[in-house]
Amino acid sequence: MKHNTDNPLSSSSRTASRSASSIAEFRRLHEEEGLLFLGNAWDAASAAALEKAGFAAIGTTSYGIAQASGMRDGEEIPFDRLAAIVRDIAARVNIPVSADIEAGYASKHADIVDNALRVADAGAAGLNIEDSPKDRHGLRDVSEQARLLALLRNALDARGFGGFFVNARTDTYLMPGVSDPFEETLLRVRAYADGGADGIFVPGLSADAEIAAVASASPLPLNVMSLPGLTSVSRLQKLGVRRFSFGNAFSDLALAFLARSAKRLLRDQDTQSLYAARSE
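The line above is the sequence of Carboxyvinyl-carboxyphosphonate phosphorylmutase; the predicted structure tokens follow.
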């Protein structure tokens, strides 16, 4: 019988070394010329498919994870489960993984910081954090969110995760009641940069002129999300976008395919369709 002689400290050191390498690579992808086209995964299998296709980095999709778990988006899934999925994905692929932790899965800043450290410990190289808390309507006060970002930055650095990429998401274009989303976005970009964020994510930002203006004014790399009519990497790169992701669109497509295939199997009473078009 072969006994396991691995030193736990050695294993821990290897994990820490891999995490540091992943963090450095993820930061490099944001700093080099061009646009980072980020693949969005919801489990280890989807992450592996994206890596095999050639994506350089992966971001989790909270919506896709919730759907795959039979739950609704909006921090309904227990954070322990989310952290475990992030850990599974990070262990399965050899490219950087960014974790979508929505608004932090907590109300108190200390608890949000703890959750951020948990996904860093799980192997993530970065995270997305929103300014639209789930326990109340509207956006967090801009100064409150900037303070939270500063706390995240300090805690990650103190834990040994220097360079960990904090992508500050603002929901100015998604939240009803924002009188001037463009001006509010510019205000928040500057405040979040001062708070220690590494990137700014503005889902819903879609007009070319406004994308270009935010990209030009932002001291942080601008991340936008795919929408119908907002799909071209080359177009967005020309507008100054530095990171492009597709959120839950890929997981929606996969789940829709499963639903159509299930209906076809039952309708045809034949499994031939399961073996068609497997070669692509």
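Note on the example: The longest strand covers residues 36-41. Confidence is low (pLDDT under 50) at residues 1-6.
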